[in-house]
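Chain A, query sequence.
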Amino acid sequence: MQRFEDKCVVVTGAGSGFGEAIAERFAREGASVVVADLNPESSTRVAAEINAAGGRACQKTVDVSEEDQVAVLMQTALDEYGRIDVLVNNAGYSHLSKLLWKISVAEFDAVFAVNARGVFLGCKHVIPAMIEQGGGSIVNIASIGAIAPRPGVTPYNATKGAVLTMTKGLALEVARHNITVNAVNPVAAETGFMKGATGHDVLSDEMRATLTSTIPRGRLAQPRDVAAAVTFLASDDGEFLTGTSINVDGGRSI
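Chain A, predicted structure.
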């Protein structure tokens, strides 16, 4: 399918995990992709792989919690491709798993800066361009933890709850401009992101078994699962969906 031919897509946190799969899926479907990530080495690799496979991509290093960097990111996309049709606010961060009263103010502020402020800044700096061009789509990556929290990551879950509320409120504000705003709620996956919460590069067999036991489909999420949901919401097939979220959770939230 070439659902995104002649369209520009900006994906944050696109250097690995969900973001990498999302960027690659959009590229395979014809989009020009801005691969944005805090890690320049990983984002450069992903962009290079997309281009080597016949797609179109450029790399941009960005800290989504810094407004000036987010503004430059959006301007880079406009300078490179002339428009921004889709923004995927995927960049995320988790504090180490611990009880709420043992989390420092610095840890609390850091997770909100990336997960909540980062989504706010992405939306703030892309919407004027989308209004001017006549429409667009924003997809925010939240978490199933926003509606079915696990213990040990309460502030992280709270940031994702904020993302869902922001998604709904913003959807109302921009609907008249032909802009849709939706969210995706993934369940746990074996990506590098899990290191933030667990402190380990790879899940232990015990931890994997514990997480999987709560998911009726019997496995963790895979990046391709999330990429499929995101591209659906951003495509013409999802044009009448706004202010909603898709639980990519294998049934965990039931």
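Residues 105-133 form the longest helix (29 residues). The helical segments are 17-28, 40-52, 67-81, 105-133, 154-174, 194-198, 205-212, 223-234.
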